[in-house]
Structure formats: C-alpha cells, structure tokens
Amino acid sequence: PLHPGGDDPVPPGPFDTREH
Predict the structure, then answer these.
(1) Where is the segment annotated Disordered (predicted)?
(2) CA geometry: angle at 19 spanning 13 and 20, to 5°?
C-alpha cells in the first residue's frame, strides 16, 4: 500500500498510508 498516489485498496488502519 506504500505507493505513489496513496490509493491503497485497504481500509485505513494502524498503517494509514493515505496520509503520505
């Protein structure tokens, strides 16, 4: 889920990568 854009298909959890 750590990829450019932050469009990870996983729901926000302990590792909310969408903040990047």
Answers:
(1) 1-20
(2) 125
Q: Compute the C-alpha angle 20/1/7, nearest 5°.
A: 65
Backbone angles phi, psi at 18, to 5 degrees: -70, -15
DSSP-assigned letter for residue 7: -
pTM: 0.09
Q: What CA–CA distance (Å, rounded) separates 9 from 13?
A: 12
Mean pLDDT on 1-20: 62
Q: What's 11's DSSP letter?
A: P
